Amino acid sequence: MVVGGMRLAGSARAARTEGNLMTAASEPARGAGVTAGSRGHRGDARAKTSAAATFALVFGVAGLFSVLTAILAWLGLVLGIIGIILGIVGLKMARRPGVTGRGVSIGGLVLSILAVLIGLGLAAGITTFVNNENAVDRLQTQVDKLRDKLD
Predict the structure, then answer these.
(1) Cα 44–Cα 45–Cα 47 angle in degrees, nearest 5
(2) What is the structure's pLDDT at 103?
(3) Is the separation of the CB atoms in 85 and 35 below 8 Å?
(4) How far apart are CA 96 and CA 128, in angstroms?
(5) What is the spatial distance between Cα 3 and Cα 21, in angstroms, rounded to a whole number?
(6) Cα–Cα distance between 146 and 130 in angstroms, integer?
(7) What span, in angstroms and rounded, lies between the C-alpha atoms of 116 and 70?
(8) Per-residue model confidence as pLDDT tens digits over 22-53
(9) What DSSP element (H or E) covers 7?
(10) Is the pLDDT of residue 123 over 50?
(11) Parallel, antiparallel, or unpaired: how do β-strands 6-7 and 48-49 relate?
(12) Average model confidence (pLDDT) for the chain?
């Protein structure tokens, strides 16, 4: 079928509506009604992943790794909190038309929440251990025994 000088596939029915070439699904055909000078960049037609969702995932992974090292647990806790905030913002941005990233945002939220929970658990465990005098005494005797073996 030929419409306006454009050849269409036999299975795609087309109709001319208000000056735009329309496909059977009532969506504008690619390039219909758009002049060469008015086209934007190549990627404008595709949906873009929310930057907040991407950063939520990055902060979640970094926070989880930091917490699992135990030495940088405080940094992991901070990164996890930032990741949670960015994950919520990413979920809200993913509702906008032309913006994707809902799954990335959920992944970032899950990792960030895990980082915060593990960080808080580690902080509570360390605080409990340090405040327990028997545990500190046992640790001190173990350290003294190891020093004696090294000498």
Answers:
(1) 90
(2) 94
(3) no
(4) 46
(5) 9
(6) 20
(7) 13
(8) 455 555 555 555 444 444 444 456 889 999 99
(9) strand 6-7
(10) yes
(11) unpaired
(12) 79
